[in-house]
Amino acid sequence: MADAVGRRAGRNRAGLVNAGHGGGESFTGGTGFGTGGCVGESMTWVQALVLGLVQGLTEFLPISSSAHLRITSAVFFGDDAGASFTAVTQLGTEAAVLVYFARDIWRILVAWCTTVWLKVVVRQRESVPVHEAPTTRLPVLSEDGRFTYGPDPEVQRELDYRVGWYVIIATVPIGVLGLLFKDQIRTGARNLWLISIMLIVFALVIAAAEYYSGRIYGRARRPLELLTTRDGLIMGLAQCLALIPGVSRSGATSSAGLFCGLTREAAVRFSFLLAIPAVVASGLFSLPDAFEPAGEGLNASGPQLLVATLVSFVVGYASVAWLLKFVTRHSLDWFVGYRIVLGLTVMALLATGVVSAT
Asked: Is 37 strand, coil or helix?
């Protein structure tokens, strides 16, 4: 009884602090603050493990991991895990991409730095005409979803150099918009009505991209080595839409790649590489907020955040390997129906009052 009274008193004190300062604080009893001014709850270990698992399973699929974390938190746990928790656990899944594509990333970094040095510092302005290079020396997609290159190191270096530039160029838009609209992303954009609508709308976008790619380009779809600056910029602009939960980063960028005429494998692979700078920067930027007791929604402790991130890393690595193999044989249409059903289900739960939109 004394413990219960103490907990109620702690909540009352927290409410007074919130009313007076617009913020909040947490007490040793485990309460904190949500963004809506309500007292937040401490996250349990089961919740942390489940959310880490959900993050790892859904990050690379075109179904929106942030939407799934938001929906899972609302339906099963009654509160929002928060944008900061989402951003930090994404570090685990991006670490999985870094490990899976370690050789590719290292090769791109070395090629970019070396070529920039030669062209800018040494002023060697010659480049290999990749589009005219023999097809036997161009990258070939292997069974595990990776690209292997021919014997000419100059062709390979030029390809990697260009991919490095395309990633840099495509990252600029989301970096600018992410900083400008940070507050809106953390609050209003997490409304479940908006998320459910975006799940359905972008399901139709993915379906349209698959149809357009097959109908217009057909066998003329381009592999990764024929990626252009225009392709990279368009996919970078599409990545900005992923700031809205429910859109899906991989869904938006892969669809943009298909609209540009890339093969499905090339679009998905570049989508993974493109996400690395933005997601890592977002996760590191959100790290202090995630450890702040006054953070929004469910409040996770440091060890819980670490475990959730590790779980997302392990599951995310398996998810990357699976998806790269999947898209070599199947279209993204398989995910369209799932997105529509999930969006309609969330709408039904909102309409019947089972869950709150905020």
From this structure: coil
Give the tokens for residue 6. 């103490």
Element (H, E) at 300: none
**3-state secondary structure (DSSP) of residue 246:** coil
Beta bridge partners of 222: 262
**76-131: per-residue pLDDT in tens?**
988 778 777 888 898 999 999 999 999 999 999 999 999 888 877 666 555 555 54
Structure tokens at 40: 């937040």
- The contacts of residue 257 (CB under 8 Å, 6+ apart) are 231, 235, 266, 267, 268, 270, 271
Q: State pLDDT tens for residues 310-353.
A: 999 999 999 999 999 999 889 999 999 999 999 999 999 999 99
- Residue positions counted in the chain: 358
Query: What radius of gyration, in Å, describes the C-alpha atoms of the chain?
Result: 22
What is the C-alpha to C-alpha distance for residues 350 and 354, in angstroms, rounded to an integer?
Answer: 6
Cα separation of 263 and 42, whole Å? 45
Tokens linked to 74: 């609302």
pLDDT(134) > 60: no
User: Cα(188)–Cα(246) distance, rounded to whole angstroms?
Assistant: 13
